[in-house]
């Protein structure tokens, strides 16, 4: 049986006690994406979105989101973030384009930054949607998932597919 750590002896939610855990260097990388049509792609590339430079704003939103994760996810510990990097990569598909978003979050602490990386990638995608929805409301935010993480008691993880 798998024992989940976010429940107390009464089966109610609790924040995990990390006070006895060793501080170590920790890194997490997450991925999300947003699918869009050619018109949205061109507007982003030519900086014709009235709300501003879409990718720059999405980068800042992702960074801000990583720093605010503990305010959004109830059982996340507030942790000192050492660094956040948000990058973008375009992928042409048959009938639309996909903007791939990678977020890398670093800390030195007693708990990992997986949730911060996932939150950063998600909020960057949502920001892009918000800024471009006037052109096309049918944009689709794709799967969001952890690509890899290092550090901590559970060791390293790298997604296989």
UniProtKB/TrEMBL annotation:
Does the keyword section mention Lyase?
Answer: yes
GO MF term (any one): cyclic pyranopterin monophosphate synthase activity
State if Lyase is listed as a keyword: yes
CDD domains membership: MoaC_PE (cd01420)
Name its pathway.
Cofactor biosynthesis; molybdopterin biosynthesis
Q: Where does substrate bind?
A: 75-77, 115-116
| Pfam families with a match to the protein in the record | MoaC (PF01967)
Q: Which domain of life is it from?
A: Bacteria
EC? 4.6.1.17
> What does it catalyze?
(8S)-3',8-cyclo-7,8-dihydroguanosine 5'-triphosphate = cyclic pyranopterin phosphate + diphosphate
Give, as one word, the top-level EC class.
Answer: lyase
Keyword annotations for this protein?
A: Lyase, Molybdenum cofactor biosynthesis
What residue stretches are annotated with the Molybdopterin cofactor biosynthesis C (MoaC) domain?
15-152
Active site per the UniProt annotation: 130
Task: Give the function comment from the record.
Answer: Catalyzes the conversion of (8S)-3',8-cyclo-7,8-dihydroguanosine 5'-triphosphate to cyclic pyranopterin monophosphate (cPMP).
Subunit composition and interactions:
Homohexamer; trimer of dimers.
Family stated for the protein in its record = Belongs to the MoaC family.
What name does UniProt use for this protein?
Cyclic pyranopterin monophosphate synthase
What does the organism's lineage look like at the top?
A: Bacteria, Bacillati, Bacillota, Bacilli, Bacillales
């Amino acid at each position: 049986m798998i024992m989940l750590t976010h429940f107390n002896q009464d089966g109610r939610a609790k924040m995990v006690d990390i006070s006895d855990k060793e501080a170590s260097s920790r890194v997490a990388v997450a991925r999300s994406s947003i699918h869009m049509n050619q018109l949205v792609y061109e507007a982003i590339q030519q900086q014709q979105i009235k709300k501003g430079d879409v990718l720059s704003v999405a980068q800042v939103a992702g960074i801000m989101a990583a720093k605010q994760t503990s305010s959004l996810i109830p059982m996340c510990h507030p942790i000192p973030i050492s660094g956040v990097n948000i990058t973008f990569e375009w992928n042409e598909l048959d009938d639309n384009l996909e903007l791939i978003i990678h977020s890398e979050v670093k800390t030195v602490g007693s708990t990992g930054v997986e949730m911060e990386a996932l939150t950063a990638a998600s909020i960057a995608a949502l920001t892009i949607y918000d800024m471009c929805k006037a052109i096309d409301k049918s944009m689709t935010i794709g799967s969001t998932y952890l690509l890899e993480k290092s550090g901590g008691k559970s060791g390293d993880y790298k997604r296989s597919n």
